[in-house]
Amino acid sequence: MADPYISRKEARSSWRPYNALMSPGLKRAREPFRIRNAVTGILIASFAVGVWAYSISAVKQDVFDDVDEEARSLRSARIKSLEDQEAVRTLEKEATRGVVAVEPPIAPQVQEQTAPTLPIPSTSGGLATAGRGLLPMLLDQQFPRLLDPSSKTLVWGAPPVDRIGKMKDP
């Protein structure tokens, strides 16, 4: 048998000399794309860093005096409101000390009667009605097959706008 043009030992060692490294053929195939991939990676990374820097600078606040003042005013308002509530309680206790509580009379419950509702008469008597408004009239004259023949609307099978129902209603 003829000897191969390259020895088996050299071919085996050049295919994948180490598990973590690429083969020389794969390195040669990736060579034309290294610069383009590096530039693309740098652009994406710089965009991400720019977005991060902008967001940090947009919310940056060096002086927090206004927050401290607001916290102090809220705390003093809460203390004042607690003092006011305590004063109201003591006044109520003093006012109700000698008074006997009397329950107010209960009024009898009255049932509300509603007037019976009348059904809205339907305008469609089985024949095609002239649609409401100016647009259906003009469209029906120019393009007679464009409108729904039963309701004279652009959307075929649409329910009437006078009776808004549920999706499962016919």
From TrEMBL:
Mark the transmembrane ranges.
35-54
Q: Name one GO biological process term.
A: mitochondrial respiratory chain complex IV assembly
Q: What does the UniProt keyword field contain?
A: Membrane, Mitochondrion, Mitochondrion inner membrane, Transmembrane, Transmembrane helix
Gene Ontology cellular-component terms for this entry are: mitochondrial inner membrane
Q: Which domain of life is it from?
A: Eukaryota
Q: Where in the cell is it found?
A: Mitochondrion membrane
Q: Where is the Cytochrome c oxidase assembly factor 3 mitochondrial coiled-coil domain?
A: 25-71
Membrane topology, as annotated: Single-pass membrane protein
InterPro entries in alphabetical order: Coa3, Coa3_CC
An example Pfam family from this entry, by short name, is Coa3_cc
Q: Which PANTHER family match?
A: CYTOCHROME C OXIDASE ASSEMBLY FACTOR 3 HOMOLOG, MITOCHONDRIAL, CYTOCHROME C OXIDASE ASSEMBLY FACTOR 3, MITOCHONDRIAL
Quaternary structure, from the entry: Component of 250-400 kDa complexes called cytochrome oxidase assembly intermediates or COA complexes.
Q: Which family does it belong to?
A: Belongs to the COA3 family.
General function of this protein: Required for assembly of cytochrome c oxidase (complex IV).
Q: What is this protein called?
A: Cytochrome c oxidase assembly factor 3
